[in-house]
User: What shape does this take?
Amino acid sequence: MRRFEYLRPLDRARAVDLAANPEVKLLGGGTNLIDLMKIGVETPEILVDTTRLGLDEIESRVDGSLRIGASVRNTDVASDRRVRARFPVLSAAVLAGASGQLRNMATVGGNLLQRTRCAYFQDVTKACNKRKPGSGCPAQTGANRELAILGGSEHCIATHPSDMAVALRALDASVLVETEKGAQTIPLADFYRLPGDRPDIETNLPYGALIVAIDVPAPVDGARSSYMKVRDRASFGFALASVAGVLRVADGRVAHVALALGGVAPLPWRARIAEAHLMGAPADPDHFHAAIDAELQAAQPRPENAFKVTLARRMVVRVLTELVGRGEVGVAPS
Amino acid sequence: MTRTTTTTRTTPAIGAAMTRIEGPDKVRGSATYAYEYPLDAVAYCCAVGSTIAHGRVRSTSADAIRQIPGVLEVLSHANAPRLAISDGSELAVLQSDRVAYRRQIVAAVVAESFEIATEAAGALEIEYDVEPFAVELKSDDPDLYRPDKVNPGFPTDTEAGDVDGALRSAAHVVDHTYRTPAYHNNPMEPHASIAVWEGDDLTVFDSNQGASPVRARLAELFGLPTGSVRVVSEHVGGGFGAKGLPRPVVVLAAMAARVVDRPVKIAVTREQMFAFVGYRTPTIQRVQLGADAGGRITAIAHDVIEQTSTIEEFAEQTAVATRMMYAGASRRTTHRLRRLDVPTPGWMRAPGECPGMFALESAVDELAIATRLDPIELRLRNDPPTDPETGAPFTSRNLEACLREGARLFGWSQRHAEPRARRDGRWLVGTGVAASTYPARARASKATAWARPDGSFDVELCAADIGTGARTALTQIAADALGAEPRRVRLGLGDTNFSEAPLAGGSMGTSSWGWAVTRACEGLRARLAAANGSVPVAGLAVEVDTKDEIERRAQRPAHAFGAQFAEVRVDEDTGEIRVARLLGVFAAGRIVNPMTARSQLIGGMTMGISMALLEASLLDREYGDYLNHDLAQYEIATCADVPMVEAHWIDERDDFVNPMGAKGVGEIGIVGTAAAIANATYNATGVRVRDLPIRLEKLIG
Assistant: This one.
């Protein structure tokens, strides 16, 4: 572990000022960045702690949206009454991630920016295009059970590890950032990048940006939502696949649907093709099957993760079927 | 002079659920572990692992690293002190430029602080001459060979009767290949050492399962009389076999301390726990069982393929339990090894029995299905009255009682023999059973018992309490042998200044140490009686060595037995698999302490859940090492994966195995667990998984 300087500014202007320094890494709860520093994947000169900037409130806004401060702890998001009542998919997704201790530390801003758990990325003695551009991607032919079936490239098939971001993607959330040039709102749809030939660049965050908050728009009237996650063990594991679903049915037909998949792509994957198939279609398992099959046409499974295609298909059908069938919203236990 | 009396108490201490003596110290954080001894002027050592799997170290940037402020020395094969051995052992640390596996120690940095040592180690550049490597175990490898023996000294192969002929004529045959991956032990406390030289006297604070063997090996390596080396290991945070023998780090600590002439501390990182401190070999096991129409086994063949390193040989005794589990006129077991460019495998909880009984007890379940017999009934029909190999009677064999009592407690009679017959909503529910076994052995040990003028006793031997509760169990044994209350007995262990004792391994600790403690206390009691209870100010001591007694006794097959029952639930859509219930019944002789024994048994069973469903060290074929090397990537069961684990035992006392009548309980808990879960998974789903771990893609494929 390299020596580093630690700064803890107490106002946003100072934090934004510091963030313009290329040697600076912004620190949230430290549940991922500190680990990466210990294993030499991250070697910042200066750590700027962003948890004392007054960004730790969840605010209800008049338009029915919620503004979640960037340093709100994951536990506080999951247990917030407004989140639980209006965005159960978000509460469930956060609770499906990590462990209680980690959720107590982790911030929502940091959660968005956590790095892949691809084993090659986390081992500095091995090649990884994300960590060291141009060095290669041993995962293509190596250990790829946990890795992407959608959106990968020949340069990288890492998966994004966040559960929370999958729910936010289904909820059409956006990210508020500040730079020296001012404030900016980035829809989550434009926030993450696919790896292409630059897997080291993971987001479209402008240079020197400080994440200030996440805006979650008002829930769709009459829609239900849920989150389902499948992992190897019952707790404290990253998703092999996860599904965030938001659904409103009117007269037996899909009137609104949002589907996002986790654990299968380099970013929280919005299943737009499936959604297009579903809008206006009868809300039954056959149509759910056909819709997700259309989405997964593009899947490029590797030898060890072909099962994710079957898994994702079955999970989407189950989430949608349960959203149709149940009066209440909830989470499929995993 | 004062008088000390010993009387026979009416309530024996053995059998009482006594809480751990050192528990409060551990909870308060005042129990001192190896790395924590406060020493002045201590320096820190960080080991550097090879980034190639096979070849030679050509050069290092040690000169540049030595210029970093705070760096005291950089060690490599070029400048490390010479040991008494130069190769043939993982302990020949930095003795040659050869690289035998990826992550092998090829250099080390000693510095003023842990942080400087770690940073400098990361900056050290090493040039290699790279050679091709082979790291993957394959069943058709032409370089498989037959070792001379398997761990610790069993015959490599055994054969009786005409196995192939018996299989041809059998009414029912099962013939399948089972696979287990490599596993890494990963005790909570990684290996750690502090080495201190005073002239030619070496003191080492070390985390191990046996300070006496560590002392002997260090003395040999550094060319010292044994009496010049002291090893202190008062508290140890687990080992599971990985600390059974000295590891390279304790040698490196002593070497580094010699070079910088200061005390040196070294702690293995979690990442390094997957590199050079041992692991369980992967196995490929073909099991063939033949049975007559009545389900009586006529032929058993168990052929094992496993790996070792190019440095030294370790041959796991995977098929050895098969030699005594079931009868059958024709029997064969074989072990074949492949020397690969990998670290040397070693002991991990129940070496041999653990992977071997996964295969055998899965195959027995498959035979039950083939013969349409209940798997318990099949086992009862094949429970041999005497040892199949020698014909000698077992000292005790209560497998039948374990199966019957387990079936009763578990509610086995409610079971549906047909797979996929039970469901609960989307969950398929199934149950399975497997047998457990583990040898009941003892090694010679010394022990000293002291009577003190104040009426208290000190019982001292270099035993190891690696978190098992050995200190407490030995106190109970001593108290009964002395006829004293346990609170009057102080038990000293984990220090080579005490009487020499064997390591904690092979579930022999309580048996070996307890035997010596019993004899020392009996001897002291006799001396006290002869002296009419008078104790001089300096105390009265008796030291014993059980070597003669143990060597003289008759050899008989002695084993603990058990039966494990699992209920699993499998999500029909996703293949997610969860263990709903796990219940074990064991016949392990007299239980010295039901509280700590239960912890050992359910700990082993829980580790068995991990083995069944989660654990696997992933081979990196491109780089040649194990890819997952932290506890986020190498998954073990969380609390949520272990909803209900019960360990019971039947009333058994085996006075042949030792004076306490107790068999070991440290390892048997993990034997058979994975098979019980795999068998239950088949019952739930109709899918037979023969390669561990049982992951969801194998069920929804």
About this structure: Residues 88 and 321 of chain A are 17 Å apart (CA to CA). Confidence is low (pLDDT under 50) at residues 327-334 of chain A.
